[in-house]
Design brief:
13 helices, TPT_transporter, transmembrane, membrane, Probable sugar phosphate/phosphate translocator At3g11320, EmrE-like
Length: about 325
């Protein structure tokens, strides 16, 4: 009897112990899941950047518009698979012609951003490309003021000074500086900022808001429609050239397929990281991601860097951190 009672007490203690450990186990599992998501986000983002650079510069595949069209085609197909088949997020429908026209406008700007970014990679090292790309907050603030007359606190605008100054310093100290590549990179950065501001303006009503996965589902096919005539006109016989390249080196097909799939996973992992972390965490991770991309690209491509260039990039990153902090504090 006593032994039975003692046994029952032991089982009770085991059950209580299991319940006590359960929240800790869930916390550890949740953190591991978040770390896995961030790792996948970093890997896909940096991977597509480096592979774009390799294809367009080192490998000699000089067709950035066609490459972008491959990306958008993959995003169209994989977005449909993720939403319609795998049910990763609920399907959101386009409710009116006006909403569709707004999405088409965003898609056009998005195309300009990606194509310009890919063109710039033909001429600039990834490290400098990322330094220029870090000035996105500057263009976002400018477009937000011009298009919505929304003013930030004066301290917020002051923090943009090191953002711009850093890129000017980095440009002066960049051994591989190329004016056309620089212009394309600035254009890509400005277009990326314009898209974010336009998205806030055009899809601001509750009935028109789309999460990033559904927005990509509708934007990507429209982008393909925009890019197809541009590819045929500006990159004549690119399909025939690609087939000829594939006969000599079949790896080009695998490079394009893998690169295009990565382009989709950049968007997927960005959505998931945004969903499972806070806005502050996302800002910190985003700033760190650019720095990691710079280091990895220098290690892989061995492009020359100067102390002046690295100081300029560091100043830009510091400015971006201060800008995000000022926006949060004076919101």
């Amino acid at each position: 009897m006593k032994r039975g009672a003692g046994g029952g007490g032991g089982e009770g203690r085991e059950e209580m112990s299991g319940r006590e450990n359960s929240p800790l186990a869930s916390l550890v599992t949740g953190r591991l899941f978040t770390v896995g998501l961030v790792t996948a986000w970093y890997s896909s983002n940096i991977g597509v950047l480096l592979l774009n650079k390799y294809l367009l510069s080192n490998y000699g595949f000089k067709y950035p518009i066609f490459l972008t069209m491959c990306h958008m085609t993959a995003c169209s197909f994989l977005s449909y698979v993720a939403i319609a088949w795998l049910k990763l997020v609920p399907m959101q429908t386009v409710r009116s012609r006006l909403q569709f026209s707004k999405i088409a406008a965003l898609s056009f700007v998005f195309c300009g951003s990606v194509v310009s970014g890919n063109v710039s990679l033909r001429y600039l090292p990834v490290s400098f490309n990322q330094a220029v790309g870090a000035t996105t907050p500057f263009f976002t603030a400018v477009f937000a003021y011009v298009m919505t007359l929304r003013r930030e606190a004066w301290v917020t605008y002051v923090t943009l000074i090191p953002v711009v100054t850093g890129v000017i310093i980095a440009s002066g100290g960049e051994p591989s500086f190329h004016l056309f590549g620089f212009i394309m990179c600035i254009g890509a950065t400005a277009a990326r900022a314009l898209k974010s501001v336009l998205q806030g303006i055009l899809l601001s009503s509750e009935g028109e808001k789309l999460n990033s996965m559904n927005l990509l589902l509708y934007m990507a096919p429209i982008a393909v429609i925009f890019l197809l005539p541009a590819t045929l006109f500006m990159e004549e016989n690119v399909v025939g050239i690609t087939i000829a390249l594939a006969r000599e080196d079949i790896r080009i097909i695998w490079y394009l397929l893998f690169n295009s799939a990565l382009a989709y996973f950049v968007n997927l992992t960005n959505f998931l990281v945004t969903k499972h972390t806070s806005a502050l965490t996302l800002q910190v991770l985003g700033n760190a991601k650019g720095a990691v991309a710079v280091v990895v690209s220098i290690l892989i491509f061995r492009n020359p860097v100067s102390v002046t260039g690295m100081l300029g990039y560091s100043l830009t990153v510091i400015g971006v951190i201060l800008y995000n902090e000022a926006k949060k504090r004076y919101k």
